[in-house]
Amino acid sequence: MDGERQSLGSSLEQAELGGVTVLFGERRGRYPQGNSLAVRGSEESLVIDPSLGLYPRRSSLPPADRILNSHCHEDHVAGNPLYRGVPCHLHEADLPGIASLDAMMALYGFDGPEADPWRKALVEQFHFEARPDALPYRDGDVFELGDRRVEVIHTPGHTRGHCALHVLPDDVLYLGDIDLSSFGPYYGDAWSDLEDFERSLERVRGIRARWYVTFHHIGVLEGREAFLERLDRYAAVIPTREERLLEFLAEPRSLEEIVAHRFVYRPQDDIPFADPVERRSMGQHLERLVRDGRVREVEAGRFAR
Ligand SMILES: [Zn+2]
Questions:
Q1: 21 Cβ contact partners less than 8 Å away, ≥ 6 residues apart
Q2: pTM surpassing 0.85?
Q3: Which residues contact 229 (CB under 8 A, 6 or more apart)?
Q4: What is the CA(47)–ligand 1 centre distance, in A?
Q5: How many angstroms does the Cα of residue 73 sit away from the middle of ligand 1?
Q6: In angstroms, what is the span from residue 76 Cα to ligand 1's centroid?
Q7: DSSP conformation letters of 162-195
Q8: What residues does each domain of the chain span?
Q9: Mean pLDDT across the stretch 276-296?
Q10: How far is ligand 1, taken at its centre, from the CA of residue 279, in Å?
Q11: Topology of the domain comprising 4-236
């Protein structure tokens, strides 16, 4: 159930969850689009993760005394320039990423000339603007808006500073890029961490809310049962990737062979940065399997179970 979903003509849709408005991006917030939240309090208002979906709404943007970015990724900060001069907040661990384009590139782990198309896309497609003035928030911080408040829950793994945001008293838990998609958790950036992600999944599992909102795909879920069903399927992608890797390591393989085989993406997917993402993601699984003694380095650079 999506609350009171309203069509605003063309592809612009929104839903009202108490005093929280979900502003859906095109195609239900499918990447590179996303779903933003507007929270109106009696004293202050804020917008969470202004997405590309706000550009077609620029003539009637929701008011904001502050912008909260759940983490420093291109699609979540894409609409920040629509709120120039409005204070912008990120978790302290992701804060350095928004200070400059170079810092943003370091977060992904991309450098050298082969990263130039991505650098260009950040600026041209995602409207990236550096915010060296952005302000840090931390786990447990509360943004008081008068009759509403937003509580910060640090859920690292996707990035170092990724956070979920709990809007009360409406009881809307915004999950950012813990997106509950069938793709599964993404931990393929330089600033990603598989085991932090696993701990964060356990943490959000324990949070009771009436509504759960993701930035992409799923959008709005009502009730804990619907959330847990999605969360279980989503979290299960991690052990599935690991089991598939273990099977592949019936014979000695190098990390480059693991990358070429593809575990995160499908072999036929034409993704520009598939190789580095596979290397970083599956490299973390490989490291864990070696650490746990389930896989051995049988010769230099080759691993088998
Ligand atoms: Zn992200």
A1: 14, 15, 37, 38, 39, 40, 62
A2: yes
A3: none
A4: 17
A5: 5
A6: 7
A7: -EEEEEETTTEEE-TT----TT-----STT--HH
A8: 4-236, 249-304
A9: 97
A10: 18
A11: Metallo-beta-lactamase; Chain A (3.60.15)
CA of 158 to the centre of ligand 1 (A): 6
pLDDT, mean over the chain = 95
DSSP string covering 48-110: ES--GGGGGGGGGPPP-SEEE-SS--TTTSTTGGGGTTS-EEEETTTGGGGS-HHHHHHHHT-
> What is the C-alpha separation between 58 and 42, in angstroms, rounded?
23
Helix (H), strand (E) counts: the chain: 7, 16
Q: What angle, rounded to 10 degrees, do the helices at 224-248 and 274-291 form?
A: 80
Distance in Å, CA 77 to ligand 1 centroid: 10
Nearby residues of 270 by Cβ (< 8 Å), 6 or more positions away: none
Predicted confidence at residue 5, as pLDDT, reads 60
Cis-peptide, bond into residue 87, ω within 30° of zero: no
| pLDDT recorded at residue 2 | 45
The pair phi, psi for residue 140, each rounded to 5°, is 90, -10
Residue 162 Cα, ligand 1 centroid: separation in angstroms?
A: 8
